[in-house]
Amino acid sequence: MSPLGPRFPELRLRRLRRLPALRELVRETELSPSDFILPLFVRPGQGIRREIPSMPGQFQLSPDTLAETAARAWELGIRAVILFGIPPHKDETGSSALDEAGIIPQAIRALKRQLPDLIVITDECFCEYTSHGHCGVLSQHTGRLDVDNDRTLELLGQQCVVHARAGADIVAPSGMMDGMVAAIRRALDAAGFSHIPILSYAAKYASAFYGPFREAAESPPQFGDRSTYQMDPANANEALREIALDLAEGADLIMVKPALAYLDIIQRAKQQFRVPLAAYNVSGEYAMIKAAAARGWLDERRVVLEILTCIKRAGADLILTYHALDAALWLKTWSI
Ligand code: PBG
Hints:
By secondary structure, the chain is α/β, with parallel strands linked by helices. 37% of the residues lie in helices and 17% in strands.
């Protein structure tokens, strides 16, 4: 009889938790290396592997060492990487982002030579290329110095075409400019790249969790912050409007970013739109785990697999994560 009484003989949920294999049989969410997208930082040079202090285990790489790391990812079952470039010089408009021989085109070519089947995603934004560190060109036209939405759109379209020409498989605009998906779709189509999908960072919040990334990509804003283009963490309905707009403009996949403090957004986005949904488990989320694990305060393997499983359970189909290589390896040896 159930401890709750004779009217509840079925309420014995522990029956299906008794044995490891039984738990595996009824598990609802199964993580796989092909769910992961590995973010990689690339800078010009050769043989470079410069560890990022606030992201232990993550490196600034040169195109050759980038290809080695991507090859390891491919062997572990990871099917996609997303590239962030650190150019040799920056200026007001981020002009090196449009250079056909720039760091990202070099990196794409190095990857494609060695790993033709790997899906190469390019982050489309200007913060790594501008001297002021903002995600587009600046103007005073609103009365104060801010990113000029429509001038940035033109440049974004050009940046995507440069990356598509170099061999990018998916372009991922992350600057949160209004109309960015439509502008990019038009530019790609006009240049003969109507087959290249757009993964839009549709609901990207103005988050303090990007701190370590900005060190990694050498891209912190030199004045102010990104709150005039990225979203207020307090807003959820607005995320759904952002996503709806991007889908209407032609986004093929959408992203919610960050992931952990935004599982509600992931869940609502998945329920409402039922399109391929990515979640970005960002640099600050990674740094917290690494810092606690280094002190022996958390069991890194168990915590990482738990977090990634829960991001997927919330509704993400794809997870951008710096844990991708470790997690893929652990999944191979996941013991019941
Ligand atoms: C901007 C971009 C950022 C991240 C990805 N693309 C930083 C920002 O908006 O300042 C953050 C990723 C992370 O924190 O891991 N192009």
